[in-house]
Amino acid sequence: MVPRILIVLSVVLLGLFFQAVLRPPPPKLCGSPGGPPVTSPRIKLRDGRYLAYREDGVQKDKSKYKIIAVHAFDSTKDFPLPVSKELVEELGIYLLAFDRAGYGESDPNPKRNVKSEALDIEELADQLELGQKFYVLGVSMGGYSIWGCLQYIPNRLAGAALVVPIINYWWPSFPSELSKQAFKRLIVPEQRTLWIAHNIPSLLYLWMTQKWLPSSVAAMHHPEIFSKHDLKVLQKMMAMPVIENKSRQQGIYESIHRDLLVAFGNWEFDPMNITDLFPQNEGSVHIWQGYEDRLVLVELQQYISKKLPWIQYHEIPEGGHMFMLVDGWTDKIIRELLVGEQLSVL
């Protein structure tokens, strides 16, 4: 009898131990006691969460074009698109950026998924009275939010741009050999992280916080993830004013960890099954990809472009993951999206 009690007690204690180790700490909500202050305007969503936003460009009521920009991994709305003032004024562009759930000053969403990201964008547009149609532009990890918009709110879009958008290696339409070979090209720690995020999501927090083995090289900003062009971009950025990064201020789990879980988990749809949003050419969708990108691999983006020929695909031969930040590329991307001044596939 006694040994049986000891076994049961051991199992219970072991379970409690693993629960304590695996369970991430609660987030520190902005505006709560002990949490970061609220310094940005925010809207209250239907589910009670708050979403922080930032407005740039020309005044909304005087604008000709309205763009909602979706930030990348480990970033916030406070890193604005490097679009020139000249282009903004020439075309009359109103820019709206926001902190995705769990990032910056936006409340976490424990139920965050690709669909919820799209619905957050729609509700933000409605509460700020952007009108029936608006443009969306997502960068890197922000690309999955744009795929969500294409799937769930296509009737609200005037156009969309996905810049080096993240790719889920487990999308069903990928030939298994293609996705496997591309996956093997990733740096080994990144392979492990994405595999855990997809296959054993309950272990991601433990994996990302352990100190024995390197985890996500993207989260650690490891130099191996940068191409030669990216390193040149970083050198140029060092001369720019420093912006405080508040991406993780409410906690790492509901910001960067949740991003990995959503992006590389099981999606409710396959993006390569999305049909043409603009059969009458009343709008356009674009993918922009750097050929030398080490985070988002070009061969998978090329396959997507062949499966979705109605999306205009632009490939930058010398470009890495950060190509849009320099040399006027953001202006080119936005001009192409808004007025369709044709840029050939490079």
From TrEMBL:
Residues 89-325 form the AB hydrolase-1 domain. It comes from Zizania palustris (Northern wild rice). InterPro entries: AB_hydrolase_1. Residues 1-23 form the signal peptide. This is AB hydrolase-1 domain-containing protein. Keywords: Signal.
